[in-house]
# Entry
Amino acid sequence: MPSYKYSVYSSAKRSGSRNGGGQRNGGGGRSGGKRRGEYIDPARLVRVAKPVEETKYESVNTFQDFVIEPTILNNLLAKGYTIPSAIQDQTIPIALEGADIIGIANTGTGKTAAFAVPVLHRLMNEPKSKVLIIAPTRELAQQIEEECRSIAKGSGLTGALLIGGTGMVSQLRDLRFNPRIIIGTPGRIKDHMERGTLKVGDVNMVVLDEVDRMLDMGFVNDVTDLLKQLAPERQSFFFSATMDGRVEGLIRTFANDPKTVAVKSGETSDNVHQDVVRFSGTGDKMAKLHDILLDPAVNKVIVFDETQRSVERLGMELQARGFEADTIHGGKSQGQRLRALDRFKQNKTTILVATDVAARGIDVADVTHVVNYTMPQSYQDYVHRIGRVGRAGKIGHALTFVGN
Ligand code: AMP
# Structure
């Protein structure tokens, strides 16, 4: 069945020094045994990468062509944005005319500036306008905040970042200044609304980023309740990497004659060599992972495990074996998550052990391998996971542990 095999993983020749004791990691049972999620046929996890030729997008506009505030234009140029990306080229002109937008685009396409530019331009021209930007994860909310801050530099616009895992004090202080840009995750936004510290009745622009993930993460009711409370006359932006019945249903309820902009980004999995790693028993599983991590070709790797506890345990096991590994999961404080991410971005650590949720929205350019130490809950989760590699036309590798 497998047409493609990593010979190095089929034997345990490169054993290295296993001083941590293979039995300590208890992650062996689940991926081979009974699982709560969808059954995924291992045959679907084996595939030879077909390098996808990146077709260069010919932008119709330059940033100078857009009728936008000079402050915004200068900030974009100072950031080195000389040519609009496809999603920016197509979204900005129609959004500046006030249309509702459905953007089909994933992280890495420049979608943040595609909504930030028209939104910030409108805020600078309409002193009463306000925007609410909702993202599924803290990391993504933070990235959006940084992007907005740099594009709005010198505009005098004020903002608040409302995410969990960070102290309430600074958020409450920011909210007292009646910010015009409110960015956050659904849970914390709802929390502030329930406390009465955030009023959204006068919010006349809303951005929902990564709608599909937001729905995957169970935020549908929170988001629906939130949207109902915004100003009835409003401009809406919905961004999603995928479009399915649920996403369409939400958009249909809340958008007003939306215009769709779809950015063709080739199936990322086409760029990813996919293979399975067969194991029998916990000790063998850990030994195989150890071998993989010793392979010099495995430069920078995200290892997925199932729960916060199993991620923590696996991280400790790898550290005990002498690997520079870090962990990222929802049980860590925001500061710890950001530090782990920064160290990984700067190559201070090259192994990041993560849960699915924590890894969402992480955009680290040069990851070479994804290892699914436990099987994902669904094939869709699998595709999300392996989308962390094979970016920008590079070949990536995905290895999934499958119990014998
Ligand atoms: P995003 O998809 O919004 O997360 O953006 C992905 C990356 O592309 C970020 O690092 C942005 O800073 C960068 N970027 C966005 N738009 C442009 C542009 N027009 N020119 C160059 N880089 C850009």
